[in-house]
């Protein structure tokens, strides 16, 4: 039996994938049909996608050359100097001055000084845009964490260019916009400048302001996400997110989506009259739970297998440390991170009342499915409450938390419902 195609998965859930900012690639395909704007930190998401626009990237990468065309306004002032020369000497005025006041004084000069003025309208708009880029990259988002992702190609160069120009370019530093209100009219005027250093900066700043308008233009936002859609390259990850999105669709009302960028893998939350629901991807969830077993729990066991297993692990560590420098090993005998985790808490007390654990296998291979079933049961049997005296949750009489497991698989030819009814009441299988 053939696996479900990547295209079929994308077609079904692409509208909800704009929150995913981990590994992937930029795709020009217009996936989006509808748009959910109920996203936590949607402004941050918009800023990132603005930065990914081809015209923004091109402008930044060319900025070190374009900045050479920065213009200043000049004015001439005539000054009388004693003992020094500033600017060019106006000899006729210098001789007249000496004759009128002290013709024997050879240190008196009348000079033409040229004053450079950097705070032109064009430069103010340029500085405003460069400062906007700087804030996106280093203040609001910290784009450094994305430089190794393929969708942020040349990200390190982009970060370095903006940082170098904003912090160290002497001409940009002389443009003082502190306390200056850069109006939309000023930006509009500069879009017509013949110098592309200024006109492009103004056009992009104008686009950014329109995009970040508090009254979000859904059409504009949709167009942005279509132009810079981050398509998940890994098919296993895509299959996991396919199931998460479908769980949300089947169970949630007015869900809030969260940016999945590797720092916090909560995907969505929703609530009803009594409970608060949070769903995570590739995560151990909140601080309420623990998915690890330390060596101290199994060392000194009466079980011969466990003792030999620990000896094998310790011997591996000893040999590896002698072969390689600065190598680290986990302190855990076992640890895990579920593909899908749902935590259900009471709204009034915030007490955790139920955990749903999902293991996802993008396969039609029955042996691989059985392996996934084993991993799912390990999560169920080994999960603990994360306290000082951590206690196992499943089959613990003192625990008030229910546990359920679901194995999500691709097309599979089994009678999955009747097979599990009388075997393990906590396990369900969901085929595509």
**Residue share in helix:** 40-55%
Low-confidence runs of at least 5 consecutive residues: 418-423
Q: Count up the domains.
A: 4
Order of helices and strands: HEHHEEHEHHHHHHEHEEEEEHEEEHEEHE
Whole-Å distance between the termini?
Answer: 12 Å
Our estimate of the beta-strand percent is 15-25%
- Class by SSE composition: alpha+beta
Strands, total number: 16
Word description of this protein:
The protein has 432 residues and is α+β, with helices and mostly antiparallel strands. It has four domains: 30-69 and 122-231, no CATH class; 73-117, no CATH class; 235-291 and 336-431, no CATH class; 293-335, no CATH class. It is built from 14 helices and 16 strands. Strand 7 and strand 8 (275-281) form a beta hairpin. Helix 3 (54-66) runs antiparallel to helix 9 and helix 5 crosses helix 9. The two termini are 12 Å apart.
Describe how the helices and strands are arranged.
Blueprint: H1 6-13, E1 25-27, H2 42-52, H3 54-66, E2 73-82, E3 88-89, H4 91-101, E4 108-117, H5 121-140, H6 155-168, H7 170-173, H8 184-190, H9 196-211, H10 218-227, E5 229-231, H11 235-251, E6 256-257, E7 266-271, E8 275-281, E9 289-290, E10 292-294, H12 304-323, E11 332-335, E12 340-346, E13 352-361, H13 366-382, E14 384-385, E15 402-409, H14 416-420, E16 427-431
Parallel strand pairs: 13-15, 15-16
Antiparallel strand pairs: 1-5, 2-4, 3-4, 6-7, 7-8, 8-12, 9-14, 10-11, 12-13
